Each structure stands twice: as structure tokens, then as C-alpha cells.
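A student in our group prepared the protein record below, which I am reviewing. Here is the record exactly as it was handed to me.
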Amino acid sequence: MSLTLVVGAAGTVGSSVVQELVQRGQRVRALSSRAPRPAAGLLEWAQADVVGGQGLDQAFEGVARAFVFAPPGHANQHEILLPLIERARSAGLQKVVLMSALGADADARAPLRVAELALEASGLAWNTVRPNWFMQNFSHAWLPGIQATGRVQLPVGQATASFIDTRDIAAVIARLLTTQDVEGQAFNLTGPRALDLAEAAATLSRVAGRPIVYEPITPEALREGLLAAGMDADYAAFLVLILGFLAAGYNAGVTGDVQRLLGREPIDFERYAQEHTQVWKTAG
């Protein structure tokens, strides 16, 4: 049975991709920067540094397919992705699925678009997925503020976004890794509808039974807060930039790609909120 490599297997999307593939009866090599865990059934773990490149030759050995993406915290994602794509090409992989981001194809100079184009020109069978903002940002990146203050503070005004559950992203990726009928295509992945941050916070508040509100802030306030928390200046600037796109309305669209690929509607925000009830109830 062939082997599929999953980069970032300990992360939010990667861990769900691993789970989806194993459930489909696929052998998986789960790649993480952390110490490897014991193998179990169809799953084996490997350690590598995708940023520095250490351990990648061994990680790609014997692999037929791969899911790749750039880990968070890096603004120039192509500097990480291009070596991964080249390793996949030189190793003769059957297929690579790349996770980019919604709107990456709007500018050929954007780091993620550079990586997309490199994959398309590699000679490999490929698919690219471009997901919108994750619902899981509320239960991960934005959770400390929610738990400590009951507030979601972002510089996006009243803009809406069609947030997507990362489990839907993973299900799409697993489908693309295990089928060939839509190779050579990119898919823009969104949730079933767009909502603004005030509506999202109100949903969390109702589910939690405690006040949770959205508070608009300025881009400068966000940048200063990120830097004070120790974030790299380039990545802080990158986050302010992409949140600016959200504020400008570029993330409000809804596509049918999840429905097309999975044969069902994507998970809605209400279900996501209900399934994480205990998280919202916890106050810092």
C-alpha cells in the first residue's frame, strides 16, 4: 500500500487530514517538528524542520503523495514551500496537494501564489485548496482574548467572512489525495454563509451563557499588541495586511466547492460553536 506524507500533522488542519486518511484506510507518514510518536496501525510519525529543511529527505523517502503547506508565523511562505515542492518533484511523487489561502491567486507576486505557480509547473499531478478564514481561529488564535476579557478584538470593522471549519478543509484534502477525477484544479473553500464578527460573537455568547462581544480596533492597535506579545515584526505586518483584506470585503464570498467535492453542505458556524461550548464557557 502506498504512503502519503502529511506536513504539519500535529496542527489543526494537518491532524484532521491524518485522521481522514487513516479512516479511508490509507497509510500515512505524519510529519511534525516535534519528537515522533510511536507508530500505530496505518500511521507512522516522522520529525523534520520544514523551515530549515532538516530531515526532509528522509521524510519524503518512499512517499507516493503529499499534503504540504507553510506553517503559521512566516510571511514569505514560498521560501518554505518551494523546497518542499522540489523535493516532491525530485522524489517522483504521484501527487501533491497544496494548501494556500483564499485570494492568493489575485497577485502573481504574492508568496503563496508563487508557490501555487511552482507546483503547477512542476510536472506533478496537483491540486490546490484555498480556504477562507478558519472558524477555529475563535477557539485558537483569538481564544485568549475571549476567555480573558469576553472580547474579540480585530481591525475588520463590520465586514463579513464565510468562515470555514478546518474539518471540512481536511475532508476536501483527503478526498483530493485519494482520487484523480479533478486533478490540476484549484478550489476556493468557504463555509455555507458569510457573517460578521458581531454576529459570530453573539452566537458564542448565547452558546456560552456569558457575554462575548466583538470590539473593532485599529490596525495599529493590533500590530502593537502582536509585537508586545513577541511576534516577529514581518509576520505581524502580514497579519495586519490580510485582516485588511477581510475588512475590505474580500472574504465575504461563498463558493460551492466544498459541496461539489464532498457531496454535502459545509459545517455552519452554529454547529461549530455548539461543539465547542465548554471552550466558550471557560473564562480566564
In short: The radius of gyration is 19 Å. The domain at 3-131 is CATH 3.40.50.720 (Rossmann fold).
